[in-house]
Specification:
Bound molecules: pyridoxal-5'-phosphate
Number of helices: 15
Largest sheet: 4 strands, mixed
Oligomer: single chain
Structural class: alpha/beta
Strand content: 5-15%
Helix content: 25-40%
Radius of gyration: 22 Å
Strand order of the largest sheet: 1-10-9-6
Shape: globular
Number of strands: 14
Distance between the termini: 17 Å
Order of helices and strands: HHHEHEHEHEHEEEEEEHHHHEEEHHHEH
Length: 397
């Protein structure tokens, strides 16, 4: 057994999702550092303009605001919508805690509803049933990069006079019925965290109609009516007015410098991700112990994550041991996500029990994310496939 593992194990550890940063990004960062302006300024503005074009933001260049995280983008969006104490926001348990934390940050109550069994996106039928007179917004997550059913959600939002705020941390580039995620007039939040499809180390983008973006721009910089770049530029004035107690959420030009080149590489990155997904699914699709991710025909999937589900009835080991076995074979993995209601803060505050949201929980218990990034070589992909199939072979029931 040890021999088999040793023979099949790749030599070096394959990390889960490292960033792919090239010389162009490095040169642009150095250029920024050598310039007189290193925080929010001309490169951030250019990044916003190019990003708006990429996702076909509704208001053109004025339809995107660069921020220092997706969390910041969602927080500022909820604040600008005036959501607060006494309000409810409907979201999914199958997400990173940031999605739900921001609802707490504005003092509102997160209302979790269970997910669809195939995509693991929020279930629109259950959303309809969870709407109350206190509901102010829907906050779906495009889980793993597969767009949620945003036309149904949008119709529900319209019918009940609710805001629709999308957590698109995973969803670049993605589209729903041919329309890019981020192209609508409603607020959509993207993440540029280190593992994301586009990274600026830390960063994010909010898209919405230009009027909303102008309001968000002010709220994201102390609630000041004029940003620093304009104040310090030649001909600028030192005067500013604080019109609300805003946040400090602006992106720096150093980060935007990375983002500009990452954005220009997105099409190539996405093609490579799709190729890797195809190779994985071809290898795992016929294996009864494995359930590859789905893609509904009317969406373009961002393929941020390759979430593989195990069929427990076909294996003698569970997900945790499956991960340990892949680690032994030098394959890095992750789990997305521990359902929100299992975390102590949310469990205690809202009295959730483990049996709540059974679709999210039963899938969480049998899923893992495999390495998926454009830096993977064909050899790496073959190593992942071989390791996964070897674990299945070894522990088949
Ligand atoms: C679904 C989801 N939403 C929000 C976030 C938060 O993104 P950021 O770290 O840019 O704030 C993440 C980050 O991992 C995420 O996975």
């Amino acid at each position: 057994m040890t021999d088999i593992v040793a023979r099949r194990t790749r030599r070096d550890f394959l990390p889960f999702n490292p960033p792919l940063v090239g010389e162009e990004e490095i040169r642009e960062v150095v250029d920024t550092l050598r310039s007189p302006w290193i925080t929010t300024g001309p490169k951030t503005r250019r990044f916003e303009e190019e990003f708006s074009g990429f996702v076909r933001a509704s208001g053109g260049a004025g339809g995107a605001l660069a921020l220092n995280s997706c969390t910041a983008a969602m927080h500022v969006a909820l604040a600008c919508l005036g959501i607060g104490a006494g309000d409810e926001v409907i979201t999914t348990p199958m997400t990173f805690t940031a999605t739900v934390n921001v609802i707490e940050h504005v003092g509102a109550r997160p209302v979790l509803v269970d997910v669809e069994p195939d995509t693991l996106n929020i279930d629109p039928q259950r959303v309809a049933a969870a709407i109350t007179p206190r509901t102010r917004a829907l906050l779906p997550v495009h889980y793993a990069g597969h767009p949620a059913e945003r036309d149904v959600l949008e119709a529900l939002a319209r019918a009940h006079n609710l805001a629709l705020v999308e957590d698109a941390a995973h969803a670049l580039p993605a589209s729903f019925r041919g329309v890019p995620i981020g192209a609508g007039r409603n607020p959509v939040a993207f993440s540029f965290y280190a593992t994301k499809n586009l990274t600026t180390a830390e960063g994010g983008m909010l898209t919405a109609d230009p009027e909303f973006i102008e309001q968000a721009r002010i709220m994201a910089l102390h609630g000041m009516s004029r940003d620093a770049w304009k104040r310090y530029d030649q001909g600028g004035s030192w005067r500013y007015e604080v019109i609300a107690p805003g946040f400090k959420y602006n992106l720096t030009d150093v980060a935007a410098a990375i983002g500009l080149w990452q954005l220009r590489k997105q099409d190539r990155f996405h093609r490579r991700r799709a190729e890797i997904v195809e190779a994985y699914t071809l290898a795992f699709g016929a294996e009864e112990a494995l359930e590859p991710p789905v893609r509904r025909p009317h969406v373009e999937h961002a393929w941020h994550l390759y979430v593989l589900r195990l069929r427990p009835q076909a294996l003698r080991i569970g997900r945790d041991q499956f991960i340990d076995e892949l680690t032994k074979r030098n394959i890095g993995t992750s789990v997305h996500f521990i359902p929100i209601h299992l975390h102590p803060y949310y469990r205690k505050k809202y009295g959730y029990v483990a049996g709540d949201f059974p679709v999210a929980v039963s899938n969480f218990e049998r899923l893992l994310s495999l390495p998926l990034h454009p830096g993977l070589t064909d050899h790496d992909v073959a190593d992942v496939i071989e390791a996964v199939l070897d674990v299945v072979q070894t522990y088949r029931r």
